[in-house]
Protein backbone atom coordinates (compact mmCIF):
# COMPACT_ATOMS: atom_id res chain seq x y z
CA UNK A 1 0.00 0.00 0.00
CA UNK A 2 1.22 3.50 -0.82
CA UNK A 3 2.59 5.63 1.97
CA UNK A 4 1.89 9.34 2.21
CA UNK A 5 4.25 11.62 4.13
CA UNK A 6 2.39 13.07 7.09
CA UNK A 7 2.95 16.14 9.24
CA UNK A 8 4.07 15.44 12.77
CA UNK A 9 1.54 16.04 15.55
CA UNK A 10 1.54 15.10 19.20
CA UNK A 11 -1.49 12.87 19.73
CA UNK A 12 -2.77 11.76 23.09
CA UNK A 13 -3.59 8.13 23.81
CA UNK A 14 -6.17 6.59 21.51
CA UNK A 15 -9.64 7.28 22.80
CA UNK A 16 -11.44 4.98 20.37
CA UNK A 17 -9.65 1.99 21.91
CA UNK A 18 -11.36 2.80 25.19
CA UNK A 19 -14.75 2.28 23.56
CA UNK A 20 -13.85 -0.28 20.90
CA UNK A 21 -10.96 -2.56 21.91
CA UNK A 22 -11.99 -4.98 19.14
CA UNK A 23 -12.31 -2.43 16.35
CA UNK A 24 -10.48 -3.58 13.20
CA UNK A 25 -7.20 -1.86 12.36
CA UNK A 26 -8.05 -1.99 8.65
CA UNK A 27 -10.98 -2.98 6.42
CA UNK A 28 -12.08 -6.62 6.59
CA UNK A 29 -13.22 -8.58 3.55
CA UNK A 30 -15.25 -11.79 3.53
CA UNK A 31 -16.38 -11.64 -0.12
CA UNK A 32 -14.69 -10.67 -3.38
CA UNK A 33 -16.91 -7.60 -3.83
CA UNK A 34 -18.75 -5.03 -1.73
CA UNK A 35 -21.65 -5.34 -1.34
CA UNK A 36 -21.51 -9.10 -1.14
CA UNK A 37 -24.10 -11.54 -2.50
CA UNK A 38 -26.09 -11.77 0.73
CA UNK A 39 -26.38 -7.99 0.91
CA UNK A 40 -27.53 -7.84 -2.72
CA UNK A 41 -30.14 -10.55 -2.15
CA UNK A 42 -31.55 -8.87 0.96
CA UNK A 43 -31.72 -5.56 -0.85
CA UNK A 44 -33.54 -7.15 -3.78
CA UNK A 45 -36.13 -8.64 -1.43
CA UNK A 46 -36.45 -5.36 0.45
CA UNK A 47 -37.14 -3.56 -2.81
CA UNK A 48 -40.30 -5.59 -3.27
CA UNK A 49 -41.94 -3.81 -0.31
CA UNK A 50 -39.86 -0.66 0.24
CA UNK A 51 -38.38 2.12 -1.89
CA UNK A 52 -34.67 1.32 -1.74
CA UNK A 53 -33.49 2.99 -4.93
CA UNK A 54 -30.85 5.02 -3.08
CA UNK A 55 -29.31 2.03 -1.24
CA UNK A 56 -25.51 1.88 -1.12
CA UNK A 57 -25.52 -1.55 0.50
CA UNK A 58 -27.46 -3.38 3.20
CA UNK A 59 -25.69 -2.98 6.54
CA UNK A 60 -25.42 -5.32 9.48
CA UNK A 61 -25.47 -2.97 12.45
CA UNK A 62 -25.04 -5.79 14.94
CA UNK A 63 -21.58 -6.42 13.47
CA UNK A 64 -20.61 -2.79 12.83
CA UNK A 65 -18.17 -1.40 15.37
CA UNK A 66 -16.58 1.96 16.04
CA UNK A 67 -15.53 3.59 12.79
CA UNK A 68 -16.27 0.47 10.72
CA UNK A 69 -19.60 -0.38 9.12
CA UNK A 70 -20.40 -3.98 8.21
CA UNK A 71 -22.45 -5.10 5.24
CA UNK A 72 -24.75 -8.10 5.52
CA UNK A 73 -21.94 -10.39 4.34
CA UNK A 74 -19.57 -9.31 7.10
CA UNK A 75 -17.33 -7.03 5.05
CA UNK A 76 -16.23 -4.18 7.30
CA UNK A 77 -15.54 -0.80 5.71
CA UNK A 78 -13.92 2.24 7.28
CA UNK A 79 -16.86 4.65 7.33
CA UNK A 80 -16.23 8.35 6.73
CA UNK A 81 -19.84 8.99 5.66
CA UNK A 82 -21.50 7.68 8.84
CA UNK A 83 -25.20 7.65 7.99
CA UNK A 84 -24.91 11.02 6.26
CA UNK A 85 -23.07 12.68 9.16
CA UNK A 86 -25.32 11.20 11.85
CA UNK A 87 -23.06 8.88 13.90
CA UNK A 88 -21.27 10.88 16.60
CA UNK A 89 -19.52 8.24 18.73
CA UNK A 90 -19.13 5.23 16.45
CA UNK A 91 -21.24 2.16 15.84
CA UNK A 92 -22.38 0.29 18.95
CA UNK A 93 -20.77 2.69 21.37
CA UNK A 94 -21.01 1.06 24.82
CA UNK A 95 -21.94 4.31 26.56
CA UNK A 96 -24.90 4.81 24.24
CA UNK A 97 -25.91 1.17 24.66
CA UNK A 98 -25.80 1.72 28.42
CA UNK A 99 -28.10 4.74 28.04
CA UNK A 100 -30.39 2.73 25.77
CA UNK A 101 -30.76 0.01 28.40
CA UNK A 102 -31.54 2.38 31.25
CA UNK A 103 -34.89 2.43 33.04
CA UNK A 104 -35.23 6.03 31.91
CA UNK A 105 -35.02 4.92 28.27
CA UNK A 106 -37.37 1.97 28.71
CA UNK A 107 -40.00 4.24 30.22
CA UNK A 108 -39.65 6.76 27.39
CA UNK A 109 -39.96 4.01 24.76
CA UNK A 110 -43.00 2.18 26.10
CA UNK A 111 -44.85 5.27 27.33
CA UNK A 112 -43.87 7.65 24.55
CA UNK A 113 -45.43 10.87 25.83
CA UNK A 114 -47.32 13.56 23.96
CA UNK A 115 -44.89 16.13 25.30
CA UNK A 116 -46.93 19.27 24.71
CA UNK A 117 -49.87 17.95 26.74
CA UNK A 118 -48.37 15.36 29.08
CA UNK A 119 -44.62 16.04 29.51
CA UNK A 120 -42.81 13.52 31.63
CA UNK A 121 -41.69 14.58 35.08
CA UNK A 122 -37.96 14.42 34.26
CA UNK A 123 -37.97 16.00 30.78
CA UNK A 124 -36.49 19.29 32.02
CA UNK A 125 -33.66 17.37 33.71
CA UNK A 126 -33.01 15.37 30.53
CA UNK A 127 -32.83 18.57 28.50
CA UNK A 128 -30.68 20.48 30.98
CA UNK A 129 -28.17 17.64 31.27
CA UNK A 130 -27.86 17.21 27.50
CA UNK A 131 -29.35 19.36 24.75
CA UNK A 132 -29.57 22.55 26.79
CA UNK A 133 -26.14 22.03 28.32
CA UNK A 134 -24.83 22.10 24.75
CA UNK A 135 -26.83 25.18 23.72
CA UNK A 136 -24.97 27.68 21.52
CA UNK A 137 -23.86 30.95 23.13
CA UNK A 138 -26.83 33.25 23.76
CA UNK A 139 -29.39 30.42 23.62
CA UNK A 140 -31.32 29.42 26.74
CA UNK A 141 -34.48 27.83 25.33
CA UNK A 142 -35.27 24.90 23.08
CA UNK A 143 -38.02 23.41 20.97
CA UNK A 144 -37.65 19.70 20.27
CA UNK A 145 -38.91 18.16 17.04
CA UNK A 146 -38.80 14.95 15.02
CA UNK A 147 -36.15 15.50 12.31
CA UNK A 148 -33.88 18.08 10.72
CA UNK A 149 -36.59 19.05 8.26
CA UNK A 150 -39.08 19.40 11.11
CA UNK A 151 -36.59 21.49 13.07
CA UNK A 152 -36.43 23.97 10.20
CA UNK A 153 -40.19 23.86 9.61
CA UNK A 154 -40.93 24.71 13.23
CA UNK A 155 -38.29 27.45 13.22
CA UNK A 156 -40.04 28.98 10.21
CA UNK A 157 -43.36 28.80 12.04
CA UNK A 158 -41.81 30.51 15.06
CA UNK A 159 -40.49 33.27 12.79
CA UNK A 160 -43.86 33.89 11.16
CA UNK A 161 -45.72 33.93 14.46
CA UNK A 162 -43.13 36.25 16.00
CA UNK A 163 -43.24 38.74 13.13
CA UNK A 164 -47.05 38.83 13.05
CA UNK A 165 -47.21 39.25 16.83
CA UNK A 166 -45.00 42.32 16.44
CA UNK A 167 -47.36 43.75 13.83
CA UNK A 168 -50.39 43.17 16.11
CA UNK A 169 -48.63 44.96 18.99
CA UNK A 170 -50.27 42.73 21.56
CA UNK A 171 -53.76 42.81 20.04
CA UNK A 172 -55.81 39.63 19.78
CA UNK A 173 -56.63 37.91 16.49
CA UNK A 174 -59.39 39.59 14.52
CA UNK A 175 -62.55 37.85 13.38
CA UNK A 176 -61.42 38.31 9.79
CA UNK A 177 -58.10 36.60 10.50
CA UNK A 178 -59.81 33.70 12.20
CA UNK A 179 -62.26 33.15 9.35
CA UNK A 180 -59.97 33.82 6.35
CA UNK A 181 -57.25 31.45 7.53
CA UNK A 182 -59.70 28.55 7.30
CA UNK A 183 -59.85 29.23 3.55
CA UNK A 184 -56.06 29.61 3.30
CA UNK A 185 -56.47 33.31 2.60
CA UNK A 186 -55.11 36.53 4.00
CA UNK A 187 -55.10 38.23 6.40
CA UNK A 188 -55.21 35.05 8.51
CA UNK A 189 -52.80 33.17 6.26
CA UNK A 190 -49.44 34.90 6.11
CA UNK A 191 -47.93 36.42 2.99
CA UNK A 192 -44.52 36.70 4.65
CA UNK A 193 -41.61 34.70 3.23
CA UNK A 194 -38.43 32.92 4.27
CA UNK A 195 -35.23 33.81 2.42
CA UNK A 196 -32.67 31.10 1.69
CA UNK A 197 -29.50 30.83 -0.39
CA UNK A 198 -28.63 29.29 -3.71
CA UNK A 199 -27.28 25.71 -3.26
CA UNK A 200 -28.68 25.52 0.28
CA UNK A 201 -30.43 22.45 1.66
CA UNK A 202 -32.90 22.62 4.53
CA UNK A 203 -35.03 19.49 4.19
CA UNK A 204 -37.70 17.78 2.11
CA UNK A 205 -40.96 18.66 3.87
CA UNK A 206 -43.05 21.39 2.21
CA UNK A 207 -41.78 24.55 3.91
CA UNK A 208 -38.22 23.28 4.23
CA UNK A 209 -38.27 22.15 0.60
CA UNK A 210 -39.30 25.63 -0.53
CA UNK A 211 -35.99 26.87 0.93
CA UNK A 212 -33.94 23.98 -0.47
CA UNK A 213 -31.96 24.92 -3.58
CA UNK A 214 -29.34 22.19 -3.94
CA UNK A 215 -30.71 19.72 -6.52
CA UNK A 216 -33.76 19.76 -8.78
CA UNK A 217 -34.56 16.11 -8.01
CA UNK A 218 -35.51 17.11 -4.46
CA UNK A 219 -38.12 19.61 -5.63
CA UNK A 220 -39.64 18.27 -8.85
CA UNK A 221 -43.46 17.90 -8.91
CA UNK A 222 -43.89 19.36 -5.42
CA UNK A 223 -45.84 22.61 -4.96
CA UNK A 224 -43.56 25.30 -3.60
CA UNK A 225 -43.90 28.64 -1.89
CA UNK A 226 -42.57 31.50 -4.08
CA UNK A 227 -39.91 32.48 -1.56
CA UNK A 228 -36.76 34.48 -2.41
CA UNK A 229 -33.29 33.12 -3.04
CA UNK A 230 -30.05 35.03 -2.47
CA UNK A 231 -26.62 34.16 -3.92
CA UNK A 232 -24.10 32.27 -1.81
CA UNK A 233 -20.41 33.06 -2.40
CA UNK A 234 -18.52 30.84 -4.83
CA UNK A 235 -15.02 30.94 -3.43
CA UNK A 236 -11.84 30.17 -5.33
CA UNK A 237 -9.15 27.88 -3.93
CA UNK A 238 -6.53 27.88 -2.52
CA UNK A 239 -7.98 30.62 -0.34
CA UNK A 240 -4.65 32.32 0.29
CA UNK A 241 -4.14 32.85 -3.46
CA UNK A 242 -7.54 34.42 -4.03
CA UNK A 243 -8.10 36.50 -0.91
CA UNK A 244 -8.99 39.71 -2.77
CA UNK A 245 -11.24 37.96 -5.30
CA UNK A 246 -13.07 36.03 -2.58
CA UNK A 247 -13.65 39.12 -0.47
CA UNK A 248 -15.07 40.85 -3.54
CA UNK A 249 -17.35 37.86 -4.22
CA UNK A 250 -18.62 37.81 -0.64
CA UNK A 251 -19.30 41.54 -0.73
CA UNK A 252 -21.16 41.10 -4.03
CA UNK A 253 -23.40 38.50 -2.41
CA UNK A 254 -24.03 40.70 0.62
CA UNK A 255 -24.92 43.64 -1.60
CA UNK A 256 -27.29 41.48 -3.62
CA UNK A 257 -28.86 40.14 -0.42
CA UNK A 258 -29.63 43.64 0.80
CA UNK A 259 -30.98 44.57 -2.62
CA UNK A 260 -33.34 41.56 -2.50
CA UNK A 261 -34.50 42.54 0.99
CA UNK A 262 -35.09 46.21 0.13
CA UNK A 263 -37.02 45.35 -3.03
CA UNK A 264 -38.94 42.34 -1.74
CA UNK A 265 -42.69 42.71 -2.40
CA UNK A 266 -43.35 40.58 0.69
CA UNK A 267 -42.01 41.00 4.20
CA UNK A 268 -39.12 38.62 4.84
CA UNK A 269 -39.72 37.01 8.23
CA UNK A 270 -36.40 35.17 8.44
CA UNK A 271 -33.29 34.21 6.51
CA UNK A 272 -31.76 30.74 6.89
CA UNK A 273 -28.22 29.68 6.07
CA UNK A 274 -25.92 26.70 6.64
CA UNK A 275 -22.40 27.34 7.97
CA UNK A 276 -21.29 24.95 5.20
CA UNK A 277 -23.74 24.19 2.40
CA UNK A 278 -23.43 20.44 2.82
CA UNK A 279 -25.79 18.76 0.34
CA UNK A 280 -25.16 21.57 -2.16
CA UNK A 281 -21.46 20.74 -2.44
CA UNK A 282 -19.77 21.63 0.87
CA UNK A 283 -19.63 25.31 -0.06
CA UNK A 284 -17.82 27.53 2.43
CA UNK A 285 -17.81 31.24 3.16
CA UNK A 286 -15.74 33.34 5.55
CA UNK A 287 -16.62 34.96 8.87
CA UNK A 288 -16.77 38.27 6.98
CA UNK A 289 -19.72 37.01 4.96
CA UNK A 290 -21.63 35.54 7.91
CA UNK A 291 -21.06 38.62 10.08
CA UNK A 292 -22.43 40.61 7.14
CA UNK A 293 -25.54 38.40 7.14
CA UNK A 294 -26.02 38.99 10.85
CA UNK A 295 -25.65 42.76 10.40
CA UNK A 296 -28.02 42.98 7.42
CA UNK A 297 -30.74 40.83 8.97
CA UNK A 298 -30.57 42.78 12.22
CA UNK A 299 -30.73 46.07 10.32
CA UNK A 300 -33.92 45.05 8.53
CA UNK A 301 -35.66 43.27 11.42
CA UNK A 302 -35.26 39.84 9.81
CA UNK A 303 -34.71 36.81 12.04
CA UNK A 304 -31.41 35.03 11.43
CA UNK A 305 -31.68 31.21 11.47
CA UNK A 306 -28.52 29.11 11.32
CA UNK A 307 -29.14 25.57 10.08
CA UNK A 308 -26.68 23.38 12.01
CA UNK A 309 -28.47 20.13 11.23
CA UNK A 310 -25.34 18.73 9.55
CA UNK A 311 -22.57 21.00 10.86
CA UNK A 312 -23.41 20.88 14.56
CA UNK A 313 -22.07 18.75 17.43
CA UNK A 314 -18.31 18.96 17.13
CA UNK A 315 -17.33 17.87 13.63
CA UNK A 316 -15.97 21.29 12.62
CA UNK A 317 -13.62 21.58 15.60
CA UNK A 318 -16.17 23.76 17.45
CA UNK A 319 -19.29 22.35 19.04
CA UNK A 320 -21.33 24.59 16.74
CA UNK A 321 -19.86 25.62 13.41
CA UNK A 322 -21.15 29.18 13.68
CA UNK A 323 -18.85 29.63 16.69
CA UNK A 324 -16.05 29.98 14.12
CA UNK A 325 -17.62 33.29 13.00
CA UNK A 326 -17.18 35.23 16.28
CA UNK A 327 -20.47 37.04 15.69
CA UNK A 328 -21.08 40.33 17.48
CA UNK A 329 -24.59 39.10 18.33
CA UNK A 330 -25.88 35.52 18.26
CA UNK A 331 -28.30 34.10 15.68
CA UNK A 332 -31.98 34.25 16.57
CA UNK A 333 -32.42 30.50 16.14
CA UNK A 334 -30.09 27.54 15.60
CA UNK A 335 -31.56 24.29 14.27
CA UNK A 336 -29.97 20.89 14.93
CA UNK A 337 -30.32 17.15 14.34
CA UNK A 338 -28.07 14.38 12.92
CA UNK A 339 -25.09 13.85 15.27
CA UNK A 340 -27.26 14.69 18.27
CA UNK A 341 -29.65 11.84 17.34
CA UNK A 342 -32.39 14.35 18.22
CA UNK A 343 -33.80 17.45 16.57
CA UNK A 344 -35.14 20.91 17.25
CA UNK A 345 -34.03 24.50 17.50
CA UNK A 346 -32.45 26.72 20.12
CA UNK A 347 -33.39 30.33 20.80
CA UNK A 348 -32.89 33.04 23.39
CA UNK A 349 -35.76 35.47 22.86
CA UNK A 350 -38.82 34.27 24.77
CA UNK A 351 -41.06 36.05 22.27
CA UNK A 352 -40.21 33.32 19.74
CA UNK A 353 -42.37 31.03 21.84
CA UNK A 354 -46.02 31.66 20.87
CA UNK A 355 -48.25 32.97 23.65
CA UNK A 356 -51.18 30.66 22.89
CA UNK A 357 -51.07 26.84 23.22
CA UNK A 358 -51.47 24.49 20.26
CA UNK A 359 -49.68 26.81 17.82
CA UNK A 360 -46.27 25.10 17.87
CA UNK A 361 -47.65 21.63 18.41
CA UNK A 362 -47.93 18.02 17.32
CA UNK A 363 -48.56 14.77 19.16
CA UNK A 364 -44.97 14.08 20.20
CA UNK A 365 -43.11 17.41 19.89
CA UNK A 366 -39.86 15.51 19.69
CA UNK A 367 -38.97 12.27 21.42
CA UNK A 368 -37.61 11.79 24.96
CA UNK A 369 -35.70 8.68 23.81
CA UNK A 370 -33.69 10.84 21.43
CA UNK A 371 -33.14 13.49 24.09
CA UNK A 372 -31.81 10.77 26.40
CA UNK A 373 -29.37 9.65 23.70
CA UNK A 374 -28.38 13.28 23.12
CA UNK A 375 -27.65 13.62 26.84
CA UNK A 376 -25.34 10.60 26.73
CA UNK A 377 -23.68 11.87 23.54
CA UNK A 378 -23.05 15.31 25.01
CA UNK A 379 -21.66 13.94 28.26
CA UNK A 380 -19.23 11.65 26.42
CA UNK A 381 -18.11 14.47 24.12
CA UNK A 382 -17.36 16.66 27.12
CA UNK A 383 -15.76 13.92 29.22
CA UNK A 384 -13.27 13.00 26.48
CA UNK A 385 -12.85 16.50 25.02
CA UNK A 386 -13.81 15.13 21.61
CA UNK A 387 -14.27 18.53 19.97
CA UNK A 388 -10.64 19.44 20.62
CA UNK A 389 -9.52 16.00 19.48
CA UNK A 390 -11.54 16.35 16.28
CA UNK A 391 -9.92 19.72 15.57
CA UNK A 392 -6.46 18.16 15.94
CA UNK A 393 -7.24 15.11 13.82
CA UNK A 394 -8.86 17.36 11.24
CA UNK A 395 -5.67 19.39 10.85
CA UNK A 396 -3.65 16.20 10.41
CA UNK A 397 -6.17 14.83 7.92
CA UNK A 398 -6.29 18.06 5.92
CA UNK A 399 -2.53 18.17 5.48
CA UNK A 400 -2.50 14.53 4.41
CA UNK A 401 -5.20 15.31 1.86
CA UNK A 402 -3.12 18.17 0.51
CA UNK A 403 -0.54 15.56 -0.46
CA UNK A 404 -3.15 13.30 -2.08
CA UNK A 405 -4.64 16.20 -4.05
CA UNK A 406 -1.23 17.39 -5.23
CA UNK A 407 -0.43 13.87 -6.51
CA UNK A 408 -3.82 13.28 -8.13
CA UNK A 409 -2.77 14.69 -11.51
CA UNK A 410 -5.68 17.09 -11.63
CA UNK A 411 -8.36 14.55 -10.68
CA UNK A 412 -8.88 16.29 -7.33
CA UNK A 413 -9.09 20.06 -6.81
CA UNK A 414 -10.53 22.77 -4.54
CA UNK A 415 -9.66 21.08 -1.25
CA UNK A 416 -11.49 22.95 1.50
CA UNK A 417 -12.20 22.79 5.21
CA UNK A 418 -8.82 23.78 6.65
CA UNK A 419 -9.10 24.43 10.40
CA UNK A 420 -12.67 23.11 10.27
CA UNK A 421 -12.15 19.79 12.04
CA UNK A 422 -12.94 16.79 9.86
CA UNK A 423 -15.59 18.74 7.91
CA UNK A 424 -13.45 18.51 4.77
CA UNK A 425 -14.32 18.20 1.09
CA UNK A 426 -12.84 18.49 -2.37
CA UNK A 427 -14.00 18.46 -5.98
CA UNK A 428 -13.37 15.91 -8.68
CA UNK A 429 -12.57 16.96 -12.23
CA UNK A 430 -15.71 15.22 -13.57
CA UNK A 431 -18.78 13.29 -12.47
CA UNK A 432 -17.29 10.14 -14.04
CA UNK A 433 -14.05 10.45 -12.08
CA UNK A 434 -15.99 10.97 -8.85
CA UNK A 435 -18.08 7.85 -9.45
CA UNK A 436 -14.99 5.78 -10.20
CA UNK A 437 -13.13 7.05 -7.14
CA UNK A 438 -16.05 6.31 -4.82
CA UNK A 439 -16.40 2.80 -6.24
CA UNK A 440 -12.65 2.15 -6.06
CA UNK A 441 -12.66 3.28 -2.43
CA UNK A 442 -15.56 0.94 -1.65
CA UNK A 443 -13.68 -1.94 -3.31
CA UNK A 444 -10.72 -1.15 -1.04
CA UNK A 445 -12.87 -0.98 2.10
CA UNK A 446 -13.74 2.71 2.44
CA UNK A 447 -17.31 4.02 2.60
CA UNK A 448 -17.42 7.64 1.46
CA UNK A 449 -20.15 10.01 0.23
CA UNK A 450 -20.67 12.66 -2.43
CA UNK A 451 -22.44 16.01 -2.44
CA UNK A 452 -23.17 18.74 -4.94
CA UNK A 453 -22.25 18.23 -8.60
CA UNK A 454 -18.61 17.19 -8.27
CA UNK A 455 -17.72 17.07 -4.57
CA UNK A 456 -16.68 14.35 -2.14
CA UNK A 457 -17.23 15.09 1.55
CA UNK A 458 -15.95 13.58 4.78
CA UNK A 459 -18.29 13.00 7.73
CA UNK A 460 -16.51 10.64 10.13
CA UNK A 461 -17.30 10.12 13.80
CA UNK A 462 -15.85 12.22 16.59
CA UNK A 463 -13.78 9.13 17.48
CA UNK A 464 -11.99 9.19 14.12
CA UNK A 465 -8.30 9.35 15.03
CA UNK A 466 -4.85 9.51 13.45
CA UNK A 467 -4.81 5.74 12.92
CA UNK A 468 -8.07 5.94 11.02
CA UNK A 469 -6.83 8.94 9.04
CA UNK A 470 -3.75 6.96 7.96
CA UNK A 471 -5.88 4.07 6.72
CA UNK A 472 -8.18 6.51 4.92
CA UNK A 473 -5.38 8.44 3.21
CA UNK A 474 -3.66 5.33 1.94
CA UNK A 475 -6.89 3.86 0.56
CA UNK A 476 -7.79 7.15 -1.12
CA UNK A 477 -4.42 7.50 -2.81
CA UNK A 478 -4.56 3.89 -4.00
CA UNK A 479 -8.09 4.45 -5.30
CA UNK A 480 -7.27 7.60 -7.25
CA UNK A 481 -4.29 5.78 -8.75
CA UNK A 482 -6.69 3.19 -10.18
CA UNK A 483 -8.87 5.80 -11.91
Write up what this structure looks like.
The protein folds into 2 domains: 16-50 and 69-92 and 386-482, Alpha-Beta Complex (Aspartate Aminotransferase, domain 1), CATH 3.90.1150; 112-383, Type I PLP-dependent aspartate aminotransferase-like (Major domain) (Aspartate Aminotransferase, domain 2, 3-Layer(aba) Sandwich). The protein is 36% helix and 12% strand. It contains 16 helices and 14 strands. The protein is globular, with a radius of gyration of 23 Å.
- Record field, number of beta strands: 14
Q: Please state the average pLDDT score.
A: 96
According to CATH, the homologous superfamily of the largest domain is: Type I PLP-dependent aspartate aminotransferase-like (Major domain)
How much helicity do the residues have? 25-40%
Number of domains: 2
Structure summarized in a few sentences:
The protein has helices at 16-19, 37-46, 82-85, 94-100, 103-110, 123-129, 148-168, 175-180, 206-210, 216-219, 243-262, 287-299, 368-383, 386-406, 431-443, 466-482, and strands spanning 68-70, 76-79, 141-145, 193-197, 229-230, 268-273, 303-307, 333-336, 343-347, 412-416, 425-428, 446-447, 449-451, 455-457. With 483 residues, the chain is an alpha/beta fold.
Could you name the key traits of this structure?
Aspartate Aminotransferase, domain 1, 2 domains, alpha/beta, 483 residues, Aspartate Aminotransferase, domain 2, 4-stranded antiparallel beta sheet, 36% helix, 12% strand, 7-stranded mixed beta sheet
Amino acid sequence: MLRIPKPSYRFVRSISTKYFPNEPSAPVFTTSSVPGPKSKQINQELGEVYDNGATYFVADYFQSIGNYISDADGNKLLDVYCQISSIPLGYNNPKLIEAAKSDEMVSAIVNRPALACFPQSNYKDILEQGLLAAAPPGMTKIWTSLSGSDANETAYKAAFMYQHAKLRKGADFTAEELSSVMDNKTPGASEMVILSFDKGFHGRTFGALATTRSKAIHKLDIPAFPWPKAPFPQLKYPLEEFAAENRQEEQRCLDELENIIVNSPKQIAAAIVEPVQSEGGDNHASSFFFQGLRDITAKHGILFIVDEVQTGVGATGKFWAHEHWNLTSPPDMVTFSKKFQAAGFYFGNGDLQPKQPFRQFNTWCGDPTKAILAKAIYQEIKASDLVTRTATVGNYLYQGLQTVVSKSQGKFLNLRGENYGTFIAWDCCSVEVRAKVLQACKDLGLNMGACGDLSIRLRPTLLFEKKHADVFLNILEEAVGKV
